[in-house]
Protein: RiboL-PSP-HEPN domain-containing protein
Amino acid sequence: MPDPLRELSEFAEEAVGDIHIIARDYLATRAESVKTTAVGRFGGRNSGYGDRATQLAVANIAGIVEHYAEQMLLAAGCNPMKIKTWGDKPRAWKVTFNADIEDMGTCPSFTLMRGFYEARNAIMHRRGELTDSQRNQRIFARLMAARIERVGYRIVVNGNTVRSCAEVCVQCVQELDATTR
Structure:
């Protein structure tokens, strides 16, 4: 398998670079703001469900992977109407690149990334609360795989979640990119 750090597509390089920028800037800003500003629902370091900046860092990082996948599929000639959701993309990827990205042997980080992507949906659509369509065991299992805790239907994110999300999403982009060659 080619070294993904040396042989990434242009889209993958951009995605990985963007993830690193978001994670670095978030963590630097958080380190400074924690000194003076209470964060989280109940205040205090790493408390509550996670402040909005933490939520948005996770959402932005997970969204980059979807954007990368869409760019690759569109560049390969996929119909935009056939890749609207993450549920559509694995099928299109298999047809386009002959790779089953839901297979742990092909893309081991994909399942974890999907957990972060479910967190992204909760963050963007309900400010951290699972949407009605996310309130099921399949989604709970994805969140658990990514080690995202819940309090009822609210997800809990903190600085460690941002770090983990960035690591998993970079790995996922690299693995996806390797399947396109």
The radius of gyration is 17 Å. Residues 135 and 153 are 7 Å apart (CA to CA).
